[in-house]
Specification:
mainly alpha
């Protein structure tokens, strides 16, 4: 239609224009994937915030480095990257860090596997301090049995009674092999981690 109308011909897309549209379309697919993932209502999504930001940044960087798009598309891709970095959850956004670590699929392993080695100890310190300050159950001193029984005293005199820290135990255990939409089921099954589960409500 446009090609038959002299006044509309100026709006016809050239082959170069179509090529650029295809370039942009291939880049936009990652944003569609991220949007759909964050729009699902059948499982928690806050814990996916940092992983999804990193996914988008990785895709944009690979797109620029490997696909060698047109200069104006590169500019657009870099602008998108700068916008993502502007809103990227930092150590100031502790809630995002906590939610990522309290995702039983991630724990601290996510940060180990994705090049955050310089920040791991900082993150761990921040979340541990918050845990101990506001959520950790009060320590209960457990003393060995006080008895005059010689045999019992002998048995218990060298035994150490140590109350374990639920959060340390959680971090030191390997990540759970579960599907994203089964995360709430994981916490229901592992009710012994009830205090940590309550930590999720921050």
């Amino acid at each position: 239609m446009a090609s038959a109308d002299n006044e509309l011909k100026i709006y016809l897309l050239s082959d170069e224009d179509w090529n650029r549209i295809q370039e942009v379309e291939s880049l936009m697919e990652c944003f569609q994937t991220a949007t759909l993932a964050m729009s699902e209502a059948n499982h928690p999504t806050l814990c996916q915030t940092i992983p999804i930001y990193n996914y988008l940044l990785d895709i944009i960087e690979d797109f620029i480095d490997q696909k060698k798009p047109s200069e104006d598309v590169v500019i657009a891709a870099n602008n998108a990257k700068e916008k993502l970095l502007r809103y990227y959850p930092t150590s100031d956004g502790l809630v995002y860090i906590i939610s990522t670590i309290l995702d039983p699929k991630n724990k601290m392993e996510y940060y180990h596997e994705n090049g955050f080695d310089d920040y791991i100890e900082i993150y761990k310190k921040q979340i541990t301090e918050l845990w101990k300050k506001d959520y950790m159950p009060a320590q209960i001193t457990i003393n060995p049995p006080n008895t005059s029984n010689v045999l019992v005293n002998h048995i218990y005199k060298k035994r150490k009674f140590v109350q374990s820290d639920e959060f340390d135990n959680y971090l030191n255990s390997p990540p759970a092999n579960i599907e994203t939409n089964n995360m709430l089921l994981y916490w229901k099954i592992n009710l012994y981690l009830l205090t940590i589960y309550q930590f999720l409500t921050i």
